[in-house]
Amino acid sequence: MKLYPNLVAGVLEVLEWSFGKGWYADRVVDKVLRANKKWGARDRAFVAQHSYEMVRWWRLLWALKGEEPSLKRKKLKELFELYWAWKVEGLLTLPEDLPLGVAESYPAWFDDRAHESLGAQWPILARAMNQPAQVILRTNTLRATRDELLERLASEGIEAEASDLRPEAIVLSKRPRLQHLTSFQDGWYEVQDGGSQCIAPFLDPQPGDRIIDACSGAGGKALHMAAMMKNHGEILCMDVEEYKLGEATKRAQRAGASVISTRHIVHTADVLERGAWADKMLLDVPCSGTGVIRRDVDSKWKLQPEHLERTLEVQARILSRYPGALKVGGRLVYATCSILPGENEAQVEAFVKNQPDFSVESMHRISPEHAHSDGYFVAVLTKNA
Q1: Which DSSP state fits 341?
Q2: Cα–Cα distance, 44 to 81 (Å, whole number)
Q3: Rounded Cα distance, 215 and 164, in Å
Q4: How crowded is the C-beta side of 172, counted as CA atoms within 13 Å?
């Protein structure tokens, strides 16, 4: 394959901005592609693919080069040549005695913490999260069945097949642009990781339920719940970031999910203002994002120990306050996209110790070992009094 200098330069620019200025790689890739409008689809795919892969393997590549990381353009070009020889041309064989954190390219501090908290499971997860993420869709059953959606996607030239992870899930063979398709504009589906699609069913949404999605973000799981409720009941999407709620409203309109409303959380009192009125509550809390590393490839480099500690405090605070809006007998689902027990089992155990009115029905880990899923944790609790 011929290497074009301008495309290689595009990859190097992504590395400079991501590691030098702290930008997330997807934002930088978008910036670089917008600045080079003459590039064709193949050129754009080249820059995106190899930028993400070099970010993914950053620690390993510098270890193979035998140097400390540098953002000098000459050094980055040399690093690209080493990456190309290894990953594309297959001319470089990795040493067999590399430590796991180097071989699988994770920060040393995170590798140590994951080893300590996950034990023998960590090498399995470390390898699984380095597999490139696939594009997974969730069929909007308010609009169509999965078979109908597969037929429509085929008519639009999109190669797709059913996933075995969820009855609504579809996996695409490539990474096409979707927003311009009429199937997307008509609200027939949402882009949603397969593991993420498994979370709403733990809440068991039923027609007529009143549900609070208290950390809803842009509302992906609320849309799933609305479809499961057949658009009968009430889902209140709440979040501390108001702009995300605006996106949730747009998505709900496109999907035909009329049971969804939104409320910005300024104070905890906003969650509790109706008293204990909700039948069910989803707390998909802010987390480290360590379960979605293969999808957000540079999150492992951006995350720092102090960020994790602050996140643990936020999770505990949400757990201690928000469930007051739940009825007696109501169901609470606590979820993260983290693989770390400190954000998962430990948080739930501490909560029920301090809140004896709640009992744990079950706890689950959704593993990134499945090709269609990132890593998630889910706990199902009941409010007994």
Answers
A1: G
A2: 19
A3: 28
A4: 23
pLDDT band at 2 (very low <50, low <70, confident <90, very high): confident
Do 232 and 85 share a structural domain?
Answer: no
Residues with Cβ within 8 Å of residue 22, at least 6 apart in sequence: 302
Residue 183 in any domain: the answer is: no
Same domain for 209 and 94: no
Rg of the chain (C-alpha set): 22
Q: What is the pLDDT of residues 142-192, one digit of tens each?
A: 999 999 999 999 999 999 999 999 999 999 999 998 999 999 999 999 999
Q: Where are the beta strands (DSSP E) in 205-325?
A: 210-213, 234-239, 260-264, 278-284
Residue 203 lies in a domain: yes
The verdict on residue 152 lying in a domain is no
CA 164 from chain centre, in angstroms, equals: 19
Active site residues: 337
pLDDT tens digits, one per residue of 187-234: 999 999 999 999 999 999 999 999 999 999 999 999 999 999 999 999
> How far is Cα 206 from Cα 219, in angstroms, rounded to an integer?
18
pTM for the model: 0.95
Using a 10 angstrom Cβ sphere, with 0-12 exposed, 13-18 middle and 19 or more buried, the burial of residue 147 is: exposed
Lowest mean pLDDT of 35-44, 312-321, 342-351, 356-365, name the range: 35-44
Q: Determine, yes or no, domain membership for 371.
A: yes
